[in-house]
Amino acid sequence: MAYQQRGGFRPRSGGGSRPANGSRSGGFNRGRGGSRGPVKKYINPTKFINQATAKADEIPYESQYKFSDFKFNSQIAFNIAKKGYEVTTQIQDQAIPFILDGKDVIGLANTGTGKTAAFLLPIIEHQMGISLRPSVLIIAPTRELAQQIDEQFRDFSQGLGLYSALVVGGVPVDRQIRELRRRPNFIIGTPGRIKDLMNRRYINLENVNTLVLDEADRMLDMGFLPDIRTIVTATPRDRQTLLFSATITPDITAIVNNFTKEPVTISARTSETNEHIEQDVIETRDKAHKIELLTDMLRLPKYEKVLVFGETKFGVQRLSDHLDNSGISSVAIHGNKNQSQRQRALKQFKEGHVRVLVATDVAARGLDIPNVSHVINFDTPQTYEDYIHRIGRTGRAGAPGHAHTFIETRR
To answer: Same domain, yes or no, for 103 and 249?
Structure first.
């Protein structure tokens, strides 16, 4: 197979008259007679093309603090050192002092900037010795992000006698109820399951002194605002509230006005244009040609650790199975997988046991997956904002990043 380079791959021949606007989905996306789902917004294919600008051109942030400057409890300091943390990131440098002082904080930060440690460490410092429980509620948009927060909590709180309950959908509720009956210090979860267990009287929030809304913009995008309002109303008004978001929208502003008191706003956002990521389109004739091109690409050595995005749960699973049967190690995550299956797939991908993770957009929301060499949009995203979230999984921490988007051939 011959590839023409214009930063991307080109088909050998063939045509097709459909517009390159992503309006029809290729791949294994549609069940027979099934619903087509929401109509995609038109995205001009030129927006998927970018010649990378070196991140070295950006002025690096100089932290004022090291973690040792914050005078954390000696056990917390030990746990921080055990994870190899020394110099703070921008969001940690600016947010931790205000959180330690008990201020409400609005943190504008992207995923992967260290914001989880920015709020967990000072909260853990505050909660030692508090007997009324649960005293901390952390709400996140997805199961995966809630799981990551819980894992970091366990690392940072080791040896302190603090406990958490992870409360998310997609897993049997019985274990979560058992954890709640142990009266954990922290409840970490997603809005739907938290509200469900509140309605069933397994969660009582009257003793909460700290509330965290992580990736608030994503939660609003996913329709969780009514649940969040119900949950927050059940917490005491005299509490510390920390809200983290990548963007400020009118709905976020309304939440800030209703849920916080005299908040300090900190901005540690990185470029949302992903200009440091090499981006291009790959033109395809039809569904079969698209699968053929993807399979050939993934056989090349430079595609070391690849995140492939598809549109539907059914299509993602079939594509992953096809790659696996073609000798390309692959796993899938989507809404039909239960929590343990999704965690296992993510672990395999993170640890390099498989080279390819095929996912629906759930994987673009809040996951910190290191060293992704390429993001491939097998199906175009619903919106350009979704595109930005997808390709933001590559080019992390100063590493080079590459993104390809399949579109239908233009004449």
So the answer is: yes
User: pLDDT tens for residues 120-159?
Assistant: 999 999 999 898 999 999 999 988 899 999 999 999 999 9
Residue with tokens 């059940």: 234
Instruction: Give the three-class secondary structure for 376.
Output: strand
* Chain-centroid distance, C-alpha 144: 8
What would the two tokens of residue 102 be? 């008990």
Domain span holding position 361? 45-56+274-408
Q: Cis bond leading into 134, ω under 30°?
A: yes
User: Contacts for 233-237 with beta carbons within 8 Å, 24 or more apart?
Assistant: 234/198, 234/205, 234/206, 235/137, 235/205, 235/206, 235/208, 235/211, 236/206, 236/207, 236/208, 236/209
- 365 pLDDT above the threshold of 90: no
- Looking at every residue in the chain, the average pLDDT score rounds to 85
Kindly report the pTM of this predicted structure: 0.68
Task: Reduce the DSSP state of residue 227 to 3 states and report it.
Answer: helix
In the chain, % of residues over pLDDT 90: 59
Domain assignment present for 171: yes
Q: Are 226 and 152 a contacting pair, CB within 8 Å?
A: no
Q: 282 and 254: one domain?
A: no
Q: Does position 411 have pLDDT exceeding 70, yes or no?
A: no
DSSP state of 263: P
pLDDT confidence band for 78 (50 / 70 / 90)? very high
The domain that holds 325 is classified in CATH as: 3.40.50.300
Q: Are residues 98 and 246 in the same domain?
A: yes
* DSSP letter string, 57-95: GSPPP--S-BGGGG---HHHHHHHHHTT--B--HHHHHH
Q: What domain count does the chain have?
A: 2
Strand residue runs (E) in 130-203: 136-139, 164-167, 186-189
- Kindly indicate the confidence band of residue 390, based on its pLDDT and cuts at 50, 70 and 90: confident
Query: Does residue 19 surpass a pLDDT of 90?
Result: no
Q: Tell me which residue of 396, 409, 224, 198 sits closest to 305, measured CA to CA.
A: 396
Q: Are residues 234 and 299 in the same domain?
A: no
